[in-house]
Amino acid sequence: NAGVTQTPKFRILKIGQSMTLQCTQDMNHNYMYWYRQDPGMGLKLIYYSVGAGITDKGEVPNGYNVSRSTTEDFPLRLELAAPSQTSVYFCASSQREAFFGQGTRLTVV
Amino acid sequence: RKEVEQDPGPFNVPEGATVAFNCTYSNSASQSFFWYRQDCRKEPKLLMSVYSSGNEDGRFTAQLNRASQYISLLIRDSKLSDSATYLCVVNGPADFGNEKLTFGTGTRLTIIP
User: Fold this and answer.
1) How many percent of chain B have pLDDT more than 90?
2) Which residue of B has its CA nearest to A51?
3) Interface residues on A facing B, Cβ-Cβ cutoff 8 A
4) What stretches of B19-106 adopt beta strand conformation (E)?
């Protein structure tokens, strides 16, 4: 019953620090996505992947990097954290309908 | 034109009323359509798929109009627990035999006692 698992659930970063948000799915889905959601706003696509070894930019990729070495894992890397990256991050996977992780609440101070 | 467009609302509706949302999509080749529900500070969850013939799940009815490229969601006898943001989801151009999903920004619904 795991579905999509994201870690960590919460994190506070200092400006300029780096971190990786982890995302794993156990449904053998080809498509995986990273979204950010600012308070009161809709989902914004950061990056997505159509399968292992293939990634592509979404609408807000600046400041982030991704990799997809396996079908199961799709980590999101923040290299130099900025206050503008304070947000809730959701990972999702799909084969037809999408399933979401519970989100990572990130604060950059 | 955005790939998927929704009226952001908010819709403030008295308990027991009927409310309907529409969502338009730009890609006429889209094949799959869904409605998701997102509660405050939670992840989106699938509410229902939308089929060509229309489909119903209890108080919820979804319709697809391919000619005009929109989908709709009707909620009858609204409950306080229906208060949430409703996201329209459409699949984009097919790549490698699969479908990239595109989410609308959502319509916020508040049911008033």
Assistant:
1) 74
2) B96
3) 30-31, 33, 35, 41-43, 45, 48, 50-51, 88, 90, 94-103
4) 19-25, 33-38, 45-50, 55-57, 60-65, 70-75, 84-95, 98-103
